[in-house]
Amino acid sequence: MNNKLLASTALLATGLAIVLPAIADRDDDMESRSEDVFALAVYGDAPYGCKAPSAAAAADECPPGGVYVPDSANGTNPGDPRQILATPAFIDAVNRDPKVRLVLHTGDIHSGSTFCTLSYNQTVYNLWTQFKDPLVYTPGDNEWADCQKSKEGGGIKNSAGEYVDYAAGHPVANLALVRSMFFPVAGETLGGRAKHVTSQAQAYDPAHPSDAEYVENVMWEQSQVLFVTINVPGGSNNDDDQWNAGAFGAAKSGPQLQEVAQRKGADLRWLEAAFALATAHGDKAVVITEQADMWDLDGTLPAANHLSNYEPVIEKIASLTKAFGKPVLLINGDSHKFRSDNPLKDNAPCVIETSVGAETAACADDNYDTHPNYDVTNFHRLVVHGSTFPLQYTRLSINPRANAVASATSFGPFSWERIIP
Fold this sequence. Notes:
Blueprint: H1 3-13, H2 30-33, E1 38-43, E2 71-72, E3 75-76, H3 82-96, E4 100-105, H4 118-128, E5 135-137, H5 171-182, E6 198-199, E7 218-222, E8 225-229, H6 245-248, H7 254-280, E9 285-289, H8 303-308, H9 311-324, E10 328-332, E11 339-341, E12 351-353, E13 360-362, E14 379-383, E15 393-398, E16 410-411, E17 414-419
Parallel strand pairs: 1-4, 4-5, 8-9, 9-10, 10-14
Antiparallel strand pairs: 1-15, 2-3, 6-7, 7-8, 11-12, 11-14, 12-13, 15-17, 16-17
Helix pairs in contact: 1-7, 4-5, 7-9
């Protein structure tokens, strides 16, 4: 039985009527079955800075081309421009890393105090065209789900009576903008050397046609590892915190409830398809990438309620990981400090960076306690550094012949190190 038939059988067994055209002919795809060692540059929550504290300053926040205008006739913009200005050199450093063959961005292309504008998105897009390797990106909350917040410009008008945010900060409209700019062709990555991946827009369950909207959810296989991305925004309880009442009404609106329900369903089905494919192809490991730190209490109270809407995603990951029985690595950003742990296993080893650019130390908390008992041993997580200067990336190496015991710097076929260019 060939891989194509095995994959179809496994997918049908999950109840998913899915067609995966871009990965159907794996017998001819040498890269997916290769035993070559390769590395990814992983980063997120960048470039931060260029905050716009008022409607008047919005026009001057990070204009196209990355040229920072600190002051204007409309007022002062005290945003820190260093990350924007340093990004070309950072990209050049990644390009010069001889081990890196792919770049992975875990979301949040600006801070939670920056207005959501087309011009800013274009600035980041223009910068990313300088990457020589393929770039895979999963959106973060700051560029769409949180655009409705007043500190990001949601519902605010300037002196001319125009909304400072794209579409007044409406999350669904801003996600559509992100998709149109950063995912113009389904199944093709950004960067100088495009890589073909499979997008959910190409391979959705016909029983759930709205899944075709999630062009940002992708999967691919490389060196006997299956990679899958899902859109899970952090900082806003999976987009379930009530949208700005001043802009969108006093209660959760139909569009918000629909957004949460549709995306959650699409994410869960995409995870099921990914693990079914990894099992059918005999892949040695799975990498899941999403933006939210689903275990981060982030000071929002009541804490348990603020994490509860991530539970279906965590539960699905835990059950699929157990059934898979091989190493599964989750990568997320959102909480800004590098962290290496297993939040699905009580008292698992954990290290976290102590300050910007500093070495790691043992964690003071066990994130296992923030969700129900899953007790999954073949799971590990990396939280990548972000939001502060200087910019850095995590070099994640894949060796399909390795099977390392979980540690602060390795797990299964994976090993990693933090790089500050």
